[in-house]
Amino acid sequence: MTTTDYRHEPSVVEGRPSLRELDEIIAKPLESKPDKKYFLALAVTLSMLGIGVIGLAFSFYYGTGLWGNNNPVGWGFPIVNFVFWVGIGHAGTLISAILFLFRQKWRNGIARFAEGMTIFAVMTAMIFPAIHVGRPWLAGYLFPYPNQHSLWVNFTSPLLWDVFAVSTYFTVSFIFWYVGLIPDFATLRDKTFSKIKKVIYSVFSLGWRGSNRHWQHYEMVYLILAGFATPLVLSVHTIVSFDFAVSILPGWHTTIFPPYFVAGAVFSGFAMVQNVLIFIRKIFNYEHIITLDTLEKMNKIILLTGSIVGYAYAMEFFTAWYSGVQPEQFTFVNRAFGPYAWAYWIMASCNVFFPQFFWIKKIRRSIPFMFVLAVLVNVGMWFERFVITVTSLSRDYLPSSWAYYTPTLTDFAILIGSFGFFFTWVLLFTKSLPVVSIAEIKAVAEGSQPSHKDH
Amino acid sequence: MSNSNSDKKNSNIWKSLKEYYNDPEIFKAKANEFNEGVTDDFDPSELKGLSRRRFLAVLTASAAVTATACSDYREKGEIIPYNKRPEGLLPGRPNYYASSMQLGSDSYGILIKTREGRPIKIEGNPDHPINKGKINDVIHASILNLYDPERLSNPLINKRKSDWISTDEEIISKLKTASDAGKEIAVVTNRVISPTVKKVFDNFKRTYSSAKFYSYELFGNENKRAAWKKSYNTLIMPSVKLDKANIILSLDSDFLGREGNTVENTRLFTDRRDVMKGNDFNRLYVAEGALSLTGSNADYRLRIRPDAQFEFVMSLLNEIVITKGIGNSKINNESKTLISKYSLNDFVKNKGLDSLKVNYLVNDLIQHQGKAIVIAGDTLPVDLHIAVNLLNEILSNTEIYDFEKGYNLNSDLSTEEDLNQLTENMTAGKIGAVIHFDTDPVYHLSSLYNYASALEKVETKITLTESENDTSAACNYVLPINHVLESWGDYKDRAGVYCLQQPVIAPLFDTRQAEAVILTWSFGSSKSYSEEMYHKFLMESFKDEVSYTDFNDAWYSALHDGFVVQNVSIEKSAVFNLSSIEGIIEIKSNDSYLLHLQPSYFIGDGKYANNGWLQEIPHPVSKVAWDNYAAVSPSTAKELNVKNDDVIEITVDNKSVKLPVIVQPGTADKLIAVELGYGRNIIGDAGKGAGVNVCVFISNNNFVSQWITGITSVAKIDEVYKLASTQEHHALDDMSVKDFHRIRNIIQEGTVGEYIKHPGFLHDHAKHELFSISKEVKYNGLKWAMAIDLNKCIGCTACITSCNVENNIPVVGKDQVARGREMQWIRIDRYYSGTPDEPVVSNQPMLCQHCDNAPCENVCPVNATNHSPDGLNQMAYNRCVGTRYCANNCPYKVRRFNFYNFRDNFADAYYQNNVTDLVHNPEVTVRSRGVMEKCTFCVQRIMEARSEAIKENKQLKGDDVQTACQVACPSNAIVFGDSSDKESEVSKYRDHDLAYHVLEELNVRPNVTYIAKLRNTHSEEV
């Protein structure tokens, strides 16, 4: 063909597999026993988790003094990690809800997995606000519960908004995810021969029979939930950014933060999802379901959000200069050329410079390239949070109180632990639930939808 | 029991009619005693099955189990109620006792606050004529020494525990043997300014005729005293009415920081920097090598190495006497020929000084004759002091000498020859016994007189000390003595003032008053000791010292006041002896490396090196804590190729010491300044490893004086030693952050000239009306506020220590300071402007500003920090979760976080012992880990004043409360009170032309007002 037929949308699933084949291939990991490689991977993630647990145990026993935090730098690694993981948790709901509302069919292959990652990332993130406090055993004070002391929380504090924003986001994402899983549970229930599995699947499928009415209700609920989740995608990181933006610290007190944080979150979230999917599609032979086209589309979003982030970086400098406020101006000069310049330039190159390679189609479609670039994006995004949190604090208004922050081994242990925690959940997920939505992928398989063009 | 008589009918005890009639059932019941069922579980007959062995086994086992269980039960001590309340003691109410304390060669009047019989804070005695209610850091913090768990608690004989009686017996017999054999008994002391101690020694000498007394000080103004004697030969050396001096020239004299009675000096000096009293400011010129606290307060500072000070004084004399022809008549021809050898112009040229500054100085000195003073530093040699005496004489500056408050010169130290003789005799075995009377000569004098090796040759070595030190470790008898607060005493260092010292607590350990120990030995029997011994002796001695009509009246009123002011006839002037100048030895300055050993600001001669509070106070200039270091100028650092924390090795003759470097702006080139008192070998947990001992460099053969010497070689070595500093050392090296304190209006300054011409210069630029998006809180009634006059604040840090003691601030240790986790609630920020060689120093006490729109408050998710109706920014520790958000959002960074439980983190549970806990102020919560804290404006003092006001049924006024920092400030730079009351002092400061707030533009509305510093320079520009 010399001309492209734009009336016909290319199928998301390649190779015209039959619906049965799709059932089989998606359910396969759940029906087979885990192999050696799986256990090896699990051993690695659990070891990482163990390192984190040890670091945390020491921190609880001796105190937050084991971390690098000091007097001007009250927030260090834990808050950096928190923002990082909440950011990672952004891609999932964006893919499953916003792209659903926009009728982006290519999302069907990756939505389930991305959503799962959202939930695990938010779970990982939620650890940090609890552990970063000086007296974690009193973290319950952050919740507004009626008590005899008539003590109430302070609703003007962005940290409190965080508590609500993140927990709401988690709840809605989780429900959305579960609702999406119901038809798949039913499929699995119907397929399995194991009695135990059957019971479990039956319970979770909530009596799904695949009737027309069921489908009708399901579609409506899914749509409503997508509608619910959409503003949350934007609000969570907006509110996380308020932690910084509402303060009066130069480098934090910035109105650009909400959109900048959301873009950054989507940016890092997509990079992380892309990274993991590359393994999943290879290991589980999903290359025809999670296609190169899909990955390329993700890379385009990475390029877009990366450029927004880059724009924000430049804009921050402009605003600082334009404000005429000396401490503000200095903060940004200090970021780029001060003692933390190394962190700033890691951030700038990983987030702004390297993603520009995605302008080239070949790189966008090359698995090794895109993998490396996405890893760099996540490194860069972690450093972005580091730069924002630490450099601003380490040199604020009074030069007399400036101090350099150096993380300790415990800080790194907890960071490693957070990756261990996240990937342990991811691994368990791949073996216990369908990582691709069976129902949704069938809907976008070639020939699954009624077509009018032959008539 | 009446059972045996139960058959008798007429038993007169009966409980029921049945009993009365001897019902048989009753007999049965009575035989059983307990009702049926009660003893069912226990049938003694069953015990038969238990063999004796088994019974014992069970008994042992149960006893063991019980014992084990009990041993885990923590000993909580006894709580004894006041069944009989001691007179004058009300639980919950503090008692105050006036007393005195010796520090170096000076005594200070103190007021000790006790709660339930335990001293918790030392403050200045407000009525004391010399220090007028103010004391320095060391005295504030010395209360921690009282509760030092490492104090000796019993006598030691050859390191083994012993008791007082046998130790006394043993020592007495040893002393007698020595005395009988005609061998000398040497008593080594520090400067004795107590008349009664002198009598104790006389007593001792009467019993042991071979006794000889030696005294020395690691530092002191002995050179100044010697020079005075040579120049004037009177028994009283006048102090200086600094408040009458228009011009002050300090020659390497840190009279505000560590020389003389710094509290008195500071008060008098800052009295002439009071914007409330007008603009008649004094002008301070400082010529010094190492940047000192005094130098940092100078209006003009000249970088002159201590070896060139002599030439400088002589050149000044030449300029003033020969060139300008001032005081020509006061000087003879011989002296003229001597001084005519020097030329000020040449000196200025050779040393690269700013001739403009020097001209100002000369003109000022001439113009303000009789109203100026030249002060030479204590470490400078005698001959230089004589030259300075002459200079003051020529300029008629003797007019502001204060003979009435002069120093008694009757407490000389031993001469160099005496001490040499002592160690020689010790080495030769001519000394039978050495008694160290609360001194540490092994640490101080080992290099000077080979004291340590000489001591080994002495048979009986005795040390009276509070805790182990280098000397006690070398002694066979170590006797624990009382802390100042457990001791009686008297001091007479100043003419016309007799100070009394009284104990406020019974000895915590089995210690004795040092004087009483000597007295016991004098009586020759251990049984002669009684606890009242020295008390009675002092009362007897009091009779000689003070004239009175009724002894009891005089004694108790003296005890109540803490001092007696005496009318003694003193000569009000002295005649300068010109021959003293003729005999002086000239000092030729050179260009090679020079070492200047200086006193430490806080730890004295090492005596207070085990005091964590003192170790942790940042150095007033460099802000380094827990260590001494080699301070070098930036260009010298370049020459030596070193930066901060690099280690250099300094060699003088054949002695060398490794020291970390601090590049200290303002230091003279090729000068290395090091503080003494650090690096004691034998010391407790707190002081262990703090600093390096540089006493080895003290020598009588040194180039300029004992403490100032040429360096044989100095070189960088391949080592790095991390110094802990509370402020980054970047301000002058890094152009990108230069002068931020001025750009950001943190420090606002002007000159006196500018102020006189235009008092409102500070607020010239039109101000933006700042508005807030939240509703402003209206304050009705009292609202607390503070004002800090930066003209008066010299940066001495007394406020920090006072706050530490008042508010239970923990010691965190060097590693935590290095990590930026010091806990002090108030800090002195130090900023440099100008060039690295000629820095201009600005100090600024920084504490919680108690902002009206406090940014910390709205970010706390749990409302742990909030605002009180009287304008305090409060912390509810119990509610604090420790998110640290408040600290992040505080633009002044004055919040402090408990990263650890600092009470058990530092030095192996430093506070967790039976005694150290007692130092805590019971009115202030002891914070645990994970909690944020900060300055409370001494809310406990406010509450105390409030309850007092309520009790007396009157309105609480702003003046009723004094914060701990305010009480401590020797220059009264801190004012606290009610800002709603427009008549209050604090309001007057707030409305002053020079008043400003730090970071005003943030609209956080701080309640600490700063009064801009005015520099008394000739120009109107800063």
Structural overview:
The complex is a heterodimer of chains A (455) and B (1022). Chain A is mainly α. Chain A has a domain at 42-140 and 242-443. Helices cover 68% and strands 0% of the residues of chain A. Chain A contains 16 helices and no strands. In chain A, helix 10 packs across helix 11. Chain A is globular. Chain A starts with 18 loop residues before the first helix and ends in a 12-residue tail after the last helix. The model of chain A has no long low-confidence stretch (mean pLDDT 89). Chain B is of the alpha/beta class. In chain B, helix 7 packs parallel to helix 20. Among the domains of chain B are: 3-42, no CATH class; 222-408, Dimethylsulfoxide Reductase, domain 2 (3-Layer(aba) Sandwich); 588-725, Barwin-like endoglucanases, CATH 2.40.40.20; 735-758 and 782-1015, 2-Layer Sandwich (Alpha-Beta Plaits), CATH 3.30.70.20. The longest helix of chain B is centred in the N-terminal third of the chain and has 20 residues, at 52-71. In chain B, the strands form 13 sheets. A 7-stranded mixed β-sheet of chain B has the order 5-4-16-15-14-6-7, sandwiched between helices. In chain B, strands 11-10-9-12 form a 4-stranded parallel β-sheet. In chain B, strands 22-24-23-27 form a 4-stranded mixed β-sheet. The chains are: A mainly alpha (455), B alpha/beta (1022). Chains A and B meet through helix 6 and helix 11 of A and helix 26, strand 31, helix 30, helix 31 and strand 35 of B.
Keywords:
heterodimer, A: 455 residues, globular, B: 1022 residues, alpha/beta, Barwin-like endoglucanases, 4-stranded parallel sheet, 40 strands
